[in-house]
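Hi C.,

You asked whether I'd gotten around to modeling the 431-residue construct. I have! Everything is below, sequence then structure, no commentary in between.
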Amino acid sequence: MSIELHRATLANGLRVLLVPDPATPVVGVAVHVDVGFRSEPEGRTGFAHLFEHLMFQGSESLEKLAHFRHVQGSGGVFNGSTHQDYTDYFEVLPAAALERALFLEADRLRAPKLTQENLANQIDVVKEEIRLNVLNRPYGGFPWILLPPVLYDTFPNAHNGYGDFSELEQAGLDDAAAFFDTYYAPGNAQLTVAGPIDVDTTMALVEKHFGDIPARPTPARPSFFEPVPGAERRQAVPDAHAPLPALAMGFRMPDPATDLDGYLAHVLLASVLGDGEAARLQRRLVHADGLVTDVSASAGLMGSLDARDPDTFTVTAVHPAAVEPDKVVGAVDEELEKLAATPPSTDELARQVARWSASLHQENDRVMYRMLGLGARELLYGRAEITLELTDRLAVLTPAQVAAAAGALRGAGRGVLLVEPGAQDTQEDDA
């Protein structure tokens, strides 16, 4: 994919990535902030996500809901999301509305409306989101909330990034102000603009709207490294809404910043194991042995190349109550051992590379996803180009590299999470 990338840094530290694409009729604007679940303070689980909500509640110059009206009134769409290592805010609008989008993002990055009313309201909104998506849903939080505390030890890596009700309720305006001052400094953010833009004109608009945001100290980025477990760890959790038992196996992955090919070999391994009816685990566990009703594999807890080190390779399965979890785990181990001993054929690997390439091309065809991928990888790894190189890098990986990835999973400590249908305690509040 031939795309030009233009970089600049404002005097206040804001990093800028401009991606001109004359063939696109719409423009995308995204701000990636270098703070996610793993950076939130201990005792304030879910605060990064809560703060994302607060950033949509107006600013010093725009009342609540004005951001929504300005974007939707231009025929655009917008959203935000919180990840392990970053929070993003974005909109896609007709190209003529570029300056409007830049003004809106700069306005809330400068001074969001942090009030007690907004804070209390958004705590209630987040609690309702947790009820809907986790507490009252079958397999809620499986595996991205439930698996990390089995595989990891440290608070940043192991805690529930969605949030604990009691800790959310204790969050105060001082917490919000301190979080904003620390992590939402312009030097801790990445602005990405993609679409039919002129580089010089767009850079002038960026300077006009973002340049006067006062510089603040940029927080030191901590390492979240912790040693790989020396042995398997296992934990069972009840799920009152689950119709069948489920399990998740979690493994540590290579650091994409220092071993990108090793990381991508795990990406292809996940496809060989779980993507399509011809995938190894589908053939063995679903069709041949009938051990599970559903099985999947994923490289990355929240998606591939979506976090810094450490990140998690997962295998998840839902199985009948009559099937012992150890039979499922044993079958997965056998398939990993087969792959480690006998690499996949070039034809098998080519099929999975083709699936990945088709998916990547389809994703990058949309301005929103292309912009978000470029911005996230620029922030996380300092190389937005990774997004553009992925299809070529996957295509040259060898069967031996995928076999080595399978062998690495067999050699390291892992976490095994068992979801058992039955009564559970819910983190409900008194309201």
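If it helps when you're writing up: Residues 425-431 have pLDDT under 50 and may be disordered.

Thanks,
B.
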